[in-house]
Structures are given as C-alpha cells and as structure tokens.
Amino acid sequence: MWFSREEIAAAIRVRDLGLDWHPRPGLFVWDENKRITPGSPFQRGVYFLLEVDCFVEYFGGIEELKSNLVWLPTWEQCRTLLATSGTSDEAIARNVFQEQCLERITLYKLLEQRYSTFAKEGH
C-alpha cells in the first residue's frame, strides 16, 4: 500500500477537523513525528497496525499512540466513513468522475468536507 503526500496531508487535515479513530489491527498509520525508529516495510513513516499492543507499548499508552500517529484510511475505510456520515454512493461517484484523479484522493477530500461541516456544526 502506498500513500501519496497529498493523501497523507489530507489525512492530517481530517484528523485536525475531528476524525476520531480507534487503533485496531488492519489500519495504516503515518508516524507524523518520526518517533518510530524501526524502518517501515511500506514507505518511510507508514506503518500497518497488525498487533496494536506493541504500538501501545512503544508510545506508552493508547492516547499517546493516537496523538502521535495519523490514521490513513484505505479506500474501503473511506467509503465506510463517508457512508456512515450520510454521503451517498451517487455523490461519491459524481465527485470521483469530476476530480479525475486517484479515487482515494477524492475520498479524502470528501472526508475533509464532511468533517469540516461537522466542525462548523459543533459535532
């Protein structure tokens, strides 16, 4: 799995807008502060949570893990987040068609729009 700089930047913006996540196996994360010293088998700074406990031990607790790592949702995870926030499949398809770029970039942009709206509404 490869995440572009644009996707990582969008994931950071969505996090800053209030996306709450719960570390669990199957998530990709970005080590924003470069705290993890072992190299990544993916790209530099991107890790896969296979066993959450070792990451929790590394950071000293679940909240520290969450504050130091940025969740990088996959295509499927983006679609799930958008569906649960009320974004229709038709709206997603329309945006993907209009953007004409990597689909995951469009999904991240839609997440930004959703969480920006939630932040303005005080959620």
List keywords for this structure.
mainly alpha
Tell me about this structure:
The chain has 6 helices and 3 strands, in the order H-E-E-H-H-E-H-H-H. It is mostly helical and 123 residues long. The chain has one domain. A 3-stranded antiparallel β-sheet has the order 2-1-3. Helix 2 crosses helix 3. It is globular, with a radius of gyration of 15 Å. The chain starts with a helix and ends with a helix. The model has no long low-confidence stretch (mean pLDDT 90).
According to DSSP, the number of beta strands is 3
Beta-strand fraction estimate: 5-15%
Query: What percent of the residues sit in helical stretches (DSSP H or I)?
Result: 40-55%
Question: Per the principal axes of the C-alpha atoms, what is the gross shape?
Answer: globular
- Briefly note the structural class of the backbone: mainly alpha
Gyration radius, to the nearest Å? 15 Å
Task: State the distance separating the first and last CA atoms.
Answer: 32 Å
Number of domains: 1
Order of helices and strands: HEEHHEHHH
Chain-averaged pLDDT:
90
Uncertain parts: none
Q: Strand count, sense and closure of the main sheet?
A: 3 strands, antiparallel
- The helix count comes to 6
Which helices and strands, and how do they pair?
Blueprint: H1 5-16, E1 27-31, E2 46-49, H2 52-59, H3 62-68, E3 69-72, H4 75-84, H5 89-99, H6 103-121
Antiparallel strand pairs: 1-2, 1-3
Helix pairs in contact: 1-6, 2-3, 4-6, 5-6
